[in-house]
Amino acid sequence: MQKWKIMIATAIASLSSGSYADDVVNNGENPAAVPAPVQEHISKLMQDDVEYNEKLRELSHLVVLAKLRLEIAKIKSEASELSAPPPVNNGEEKSGTAEAKPPVALISPPRVLMLSQIAGVTKAAVSVGTKTIFVRIGELFAVNGKRYVVHQDKSGQRSFVQEVPQ
After folding, report:
1. Smallest Cα–Cα separation from 114: which of 68, 70, 158?
2. Rounded Cα–Cα distance for residues 28 and 153 (Å)
3. What span, in angstroms and rounded, lies between the C-alpha atoms of 37 and 50?
4. pLDDT tens, 55-76?
5. What is the 3-state secondary structure (H, E, C) of 2-21?
6. pTM of the predicted model, to two decimals?
């Protein structure tokens, strides 16, 4: 009896799966396919997103550029104030007996602030006036028409800037 039940169940399963396979082959449709309007909508959304990100990047670049232009204008106005001619003496000093004073250097000589080692490359942060530049150890750099080089002592603990004669 049990043997007959197994044979009947297998026959029913084989007949039903065969007809299902025929239906799929005959119809030729993919049941999981997304309709064309939805695909177009998703495509349009992605394209809009790309365009939006491009515009956003462009506008952020313009904002940064405007800020830099304002900073440059501010620095130029400060520089013009510094280069303004000194006030005229009212004859208090005698021009014949007064000695000419050498101009005071506005920028202090460069000095090493710190060392950084990234990926095996050691660079020194060198202070030049109000700016900080990063220079490799032993590399020449120019400041105020003079050439300098950063050196380390033998122990590698102390770094210093030395002027190189031209």
Report:
1. 158
2. 80
3. 20
4. 999 999 999 999 999 999 888 8
5. HHHHHHHHHHHHHHHHHHHH
6. 0.36
